[in-house]
TrEMBL record:
Residues 13-73 form the HTH tetR-type domain. InterPro entries: BetI_C (IPR039538), Homeodomain-like_sf (IPR009057), HTH-type_TetR-like_transc_reg (IPR050109), HTH_TetR (IPR001647), Tet_transcr_reg_TetR-rel_C_sf (IPR036271). It comes from Amycolatopsis rifamycinica. Keywords: DNA-binding, Repressor, Transcription, Transcription regulation. One of its GO terms (molecular function) is transcription cis-regulatory region binding. This is TetR family transcriptional regulator. It comes from the Bacteria. Residues 36-55 bind DNA. The lineage of its organism: Bacteria, Bacillati, Actinomycetota, Actinomycetes, Pseudonocardiales.
Length: 199
């Protein structure tokens, strides 16, 4: 039985997914400094020209990789209204996902850490962290408004502390997986924030 021909969009999406996967694998294996368009194309089975066609240059490739790796890290949150419950589910889900961290998320964390010393990466990850903090701030503000979070809490400070804690645990998990019990942390960290924020 003949197979249906893929559309141009399907071929483009498949190529982009393969290139992003190759880029993530290379970042994990060799670090961001060794990432080149030629290596990404070779790893994915395409020419460097295809990588250039899709992304233009290394900076755009890294930016797209950062966005792709962070999107949807914690599933099941989109249908929840902002507030304490969504905030706690995000914390619990984030730590749970660290227990089965894949190559995309490893690449994101390595790129995030590199951004502290790589000026070309810093704007990308400042923007990603700002968006993360904004989401968390929205949850805290909604919790204050509905009375589930203490009105004396500073939403911006909580957002910064949560991002710092989650990213720090993630980096520890990446550096030494055996020393970081993500299942135990899910319970203790979520319990901590429930107590710290609750009325």
């Amino acid at each position: 039985m003949p197979t249906a021909r893929r559309t141009q969009r399907e071929r483009r999406d498949q190529a982009e997914a393969a290139l992003l996967t190759a880029a993530a694998e290379l970042v994990v294996e060799q670090g961001v400094r060794s990432l080149t368009l030629a290596r990404v194309g070779e790893r994915a089975g395409y020419s460097r020209g295809i990588v250039t066609h899709h992304f233009g240059g290394k900076q755009a490739l890294v930016e797209r990789l950062a966005r792709a790796t962070q999107a949807g890290f914690v599933p099941g949150l989109d249908d929840l209204p902002p507030g304490l419950d969504r905030l706690l589910r995000l914390i619990d889900g984030y730590l749970g996902e660290l227990g089965r961290i894949g190559v995309f998320n490893q690449a994101f964390l390595l790129l995030w850490a590199e951004a502290a010393t790589q000026p070309e990466l810093a704007p990308i990850f400042r923007e990603r962290d700002a968006a993360f903090r904004a989401d968390l701030r929205e949850d805290v503000e909604a919790g204050i408004a509905d009375g589930s979070i203490d009105a004396g809490v500073d939403a911006g400070e909580v957002a910064t502390a949560v991002v710092g804690q989650l990213r720090g645990i993630a980096l520890q998990r990446l550096l030494d997986p055996e020393s970081t019990d993500t299942e135990a942390l899910r319970r203790s960290v979520t319990r901590h924030w429930r107590r710290a924020l609750g009325r």
